[in-house]
Amino acid sequence: MTNDELYERREQTRVKHDILRHYLERFAHIVAHKWESITYIDGFAGPWNVRSPDLKDSSFAIALDELRKARATHREKGKNLRLRCFFLEEDRAAYQQLESFAEGVKDAEIKPQNGSFEQSVSSILKFIREGAQGTFPFIFIDPTGWTGFACHRISPLLKLDPGEVLINFMTSHIRRFLKDENSRQSFEELFGSAEVRDRVAGLTGQDLDDALVREYRGMLRREGRFTHVLPAIVLHPEIDRPHFHLIYATRHPKGVEVFKEAEKAAMQEMERLREGAQRRKREERTGQTELSWARETATESPYYSQLRDRYIGKARQSVLDLLRIRKRVLFDDAWILALESPLVWESDLKKWIKEWQSTEELRVEGLVGRERVPSRGKSHFLVWQSGA
Ligand SMILES: C[S@@+](CC[C@H](N)C(=O)[O-])C[C@H]1O[C@@H](n2cnc3c(N)ncnc32)[C@H](O)[C@@H]1O
After folding, report:
1. 44 in ligand 1 pocket by Cβ < 6 Å?
2. pLDDT of residue 269
3. Residue of minimum CA distance from atom 27 in ligand 1
4. 137 in ligand 1 pocket by Cβ < 6 Å?
5. If you ran DSSP here, which 8-state letter would residue 169 be given?
6. Pocket of ligand 1 contains residue 144 by CB under 6 Å
7. Residue ranges of the chain with pLDDT lower than 70?
8. What's the pLDDT tens digit per position in 156-209?
9. How much is the pLDDT for 244?
């Protein structure tokens, strides 16, 4: 089965897996330089709607694959990276498949567990501690809704330092059930606050989604003392709406760089997949096959471009505000601020800098020798010289 077949009618899962795969590929290589082992936790492992007999379209198989690749590269350099995984699944039937998968793995330490994520926090912590000082934990939380990972229960996992998390924030579900009185308590538990519902009351559409994601990012930042919390948007394949956000939390700028690369690559693929899914939907409605050429890449849809414009506008304004207030800003700080918005890339920031330089509102300080553009880690400063 090709990847297109494996993920047909669940293209959003492919985008999620693409982000996970791309991120872990570089994450594992980087972590292996300094750490003896990686402890990878999948709190809602599945398998879930998989089509491949060997489960290669499951998050746990994808993760293990990437971790193994990093280990192989480092082995060539004489380093032995230990791989440790804890896979949790509540559903009995799915767990049985997970367990046989785990039994078949002989080259990594895999602990499958049949149970609920929240109830297993202490077992997860124990498993991580058993990895001793030299392990770096990465926690993937991929639920089917917004329950089962209440803020106060997962807090000890968020606080792990070192440690990173990637959470599937089910924006479409959350948006839909927000006003449902029966969900009041579970929302409070998700955000760890009773006030979020009031704070987002009255907002609709994209403004509502953004506010919910902002609130959740704020919670992660506070609970886990993460310095950087970034959302990637995964759009519904057939309609112009966000399906969910993958929210990534780290304490290192390198993580931001790697996550943004994963996001950017996945967004290009997402647009290609959405083009196909929307054509399929039209064909099913009209009963007519549309002429099409197999494409490797897609042109951006108007909806995607509109979303990108939205976030570019917001991020540009944030950088501008910072420059106006502080007058002299380390390029690295402007970079973090810009890239914390989804769909905004380093090339966008560099474009604004060029524009502001051309109008003499901004100058870059600290460039030496043949350096023409600012970059991170080089003490390059953006100096705002306009009165406005
Ligand atoms: C969205 S699916 C996970 C998909 C998987 N991460 C992937 O990408 O291939 C969520 C899984 O979590 C399981 N689940 C639901 N509630 C759970 C809970 N409270 N604790 C652990 N697993 C749970 C479901 O049975 C389902 O298999």
Report:
1. yes
2. 95
3. 46
4. no
5. E
6. yes
7. 292-298
8. 999 999 999 999 999 999 998 888 889 999 999 999 999 999 999 999 999 999
9. 98
User: Ligand 1 centroid to 86 CA: how many Å?
Assistant: 13
pTM tops 0.85, yes or no: yes
Compute the distance from residue 266 Cα to the ligand 1 centre, in Å. Answer: 22
DSSP string, 85-154: EEEEE-SHHHHHHHHHHHHT--SSEEEEEES-TGGGHHHHHHHHHHT-TTEEEEEEE--SSS-S--HHHH
The answer to whether the beta carbons of residues 135 and 111 sit under 8 Å apart is no
Task: Report CA(59)–ligand 1 centroid distance (Å).
Answer: 10
Q: Which residues contact 337 (CB under 8 A, 6 or more apart)?
A: 315, 318, 319, 322
Residue of 330, 385, 329 lying closest to 357 (CA atoms):
385
Query: How far apart are the CA of 48 and the centre of ligand 1, in A?
Result: 7
- Of 230, 206, 244, the C-alpha closest to 17 is 244
Cα gap 36→268, rounded to integer Å: 34
Q: 14, 18, 90: which to mutate for ligand 1, most atoms within 8 A of CB?
A: 90
The pLDDT of residue 300 = 86
pLDDT at 292: 67
The pLDDT assigned to 340 comes to 97
How are the residues of the chain apportioned to helix, strand and coil, as percentages rounded to the nearest 5? 50, 15, 30
Closest atom of ligand 1 relative to the 120 alpha carbon: 20
